[in-house]
Structures are given as C-alpha cells and as structure tokens.
Fold this protein.
Amino acid sequence: MKSEKGLFKVSDAKHFIRLARKAIEYFNLTGMPYSEKVPKEEYMEKRGVFVTLHSFPNEELRGCIGVPYPIMPLWKAIIEAAMGACRDPRFKAVSNEEMENIIVEISIMTRPEKVDKDNIEKEIEIGKHGLIIKKGSNSGLLLPQVPVEYNWSLETFLEQTCLKAGLFPKAWKAGETEIYKFSAQIFKEEKPNGKVIEVRLLKC
C-alpha cells in the first residue's frame, strides 16, 4: 500500500521492476508491448516514471527513457518506459541475454511544477529536484540523482538540462524559457534480478 504521502514501498517496487524486466523480455521477443493484470488499484494512478538500465558491476549507463508527465497509469507507463530504455537511441539495443547482467532502476515522479525564475535559488534544491526545461519545441529533462552523481552546482544543473533540450547552456535565463521541477522516489536492484532497495526517499 502507499502511505498517506503517496509513497510506494519496496514491496511495490519489486512488482514494478519485475514488470519492467517482463516488458523488455517480451518486447525483444515479439516487438509488441507486454500486458498483464494490474495487481493493485493504486498502480493505475497516473504518474510520470523513468526506467534506467545500468550494466553490472561497473554501472555503465545502457538506457534511460521515461514518461515524464502523468498522462497514463503508472503500470502502463513502466511498460512504455522499459521498452524505450532497452532501445535508447544513444546506445546499442539491450538484448535479453544482456539483461542477465543489467541492473534495473525505476524513478517514480511527482507532478512537475513551474519554477519562478526570479526566486530560482530557493525554488530548486540539488538532491531533491529534477528539472524539465522547455523553450518552443525543445524540451529536456534530468532526474534528481544526476546532479548529485556528478557533483554539479545549481547553475551547472540548469545548463546541462538546457543542453539536454538541445539549447544553449544559458538558455534557461531567456524570458520565453520555462523551467519545471519535480521530485522522485527511486528504487533499484542491488544486482541483476537481485534484492530491490530504495535508493532515494521522495522528498516532499
């Protein structure tokens, strides 16, 4: 069950990671989306989610794709994100054989909130927030764990999100550029098909 704050437990995450693995396996075999009965009603809540794949044990990134906005049920969004992650265009496709040496990580997002750029240093907290930057048809997203992993400052985080959107690094300062923040609850396997742990508690 979720808590009153909308958090999921490790027992829920075990379902999510198993689903992501099933979705990748089935997609690799058939080219079709995986489907199964949803075990809990709360998994039908519309949530944004990212599935990240890392090689084991060196944790090299092998794919990271998501559904950033709460436009579909979480259960379906995990399937969509998992299929995308194993075919991330930045990398070679991840086969079912390689999945035996892959760690699956899932980031469940809160609804993005628009940032007041006049108060940006108080609005965005490194280690708590992920970012979405939009300008015209360009859009880029970085998860909350990314600036922590690379020890970025807030300005570097903003610049890197601009680059992810295909914009100039300082584009976040432009009047027409929109900045959104979100938080995420993150779960991952300790090893391929291994114990599922909560990496980062959602900070509300």
Remarks:
- Residues 10-110+185-200 form a domain with the Glycoprotein, Type 4 Pilin fold (CATH 3.30.700.20).
